[in-house]
Fold this protein.
Amino acid sequence: MTGVPLRTYLELLRAYQWVKNLFVFAPLFFAFRFTELDLFFRSALAFAAFCCIASFIYVVNDLKDLEIDRRHPAKRFRPLAAGRIAPHSARIAAALSALAGFGLAIPLGPEALLLLLGYAVLNLLYSLGLKEFALIDIFIVAAGFPMRVFLGGFATDIPLSRWIIVMTFLLALFLVLAKRRDDILLVEDTVEVRESVQGYNLTLVDTSMAIVAAVTLVAYLMYCFSPEVIAKAGSEHLYITGAFVLMGILRFLQLTLVRELSGAPTHLFLEDRFLQITVMAWLLTFVILHQ
C-alpha cells in the first residue's frame, strides 16, 4: 500500500460520498435535540462508522466491476479501473475500513452493530448479483438511507417518526431513479452498463420520478402536520418549509430532465449552488420555526 498518495485512497473509499451519511444525524435534528453535545457525539460516532462500512462496500463493488468500469466513460477514471491502485492494496483498504466501521459501532450498542452488519450483508449481496435485477436494485440502494436514519436513532435512543423513515426512503428512491436515468442515456450511446438497466426505459423512469417526487412532498407535509411533531417543535407552521422541499425537488428534476446531469447526485449537490442555497434556506427556516 506504499507509494500511493492518501488522496488516491480517499478517492478509492469515495470520501466525497460520505455526505450521504449525514442522514445519521436526522433523528437528532428532527427531534429538535441538536444542541445536546453527548447525543451529537454519539451521532458523529455513528456517522464515522457508517462511512467506513459504506467505503468497504464501494471498494468491494469496484473490485467486482473492475473490467466493466474500465470501459465506462466516467468510471474508468476511478483508482482501480485506472490502475492507480493495485487490487491487492484495494482489498487491504476494504478490510481495514470494515474493521474500523464495526469497531467504531461497538460503543453504540448491539442494535447499531447488527444494523451495520445487515447493511453490509445486504450490499454485498447487491454487489455480488442482486444489482442485476431491475427494480430490486434501486430498492436496495434506497433502503440504505433509512438504515442510516435507524442507526442514528439507535445511537441516540431517539424514537423515530414513521414519517421520517418514509420520507428518507422516498427521497433516496427519487435520487436513485435519477441516476438510473443517466444509465439509460449511456445505453442509448452504446456504452456498456449493468444488465439491470435493460429493465428500464425513459418512460418508466420519468413517470416513476414524478410519482415518487409527489409522494415525497406529501409525506413531508404529513410529517409537518403530525401532532407529535407540532408538540415537539412548539410551532404549527413547519409546513412553510415544504416550499423549500418542493423547490429542491423541482430543481433536481430540472437538472435531470432538462440538463441530463443526474449521473452523480452527490456531485450535483456539491456543485449546484441553487440546490445548496435551497437546502440551507430549508435548514434555517426549520430552525427558526422551532420555538
Q: What stands out?
A: The first helix runs from residue 6 to 12. The mean pLDDT is 90.
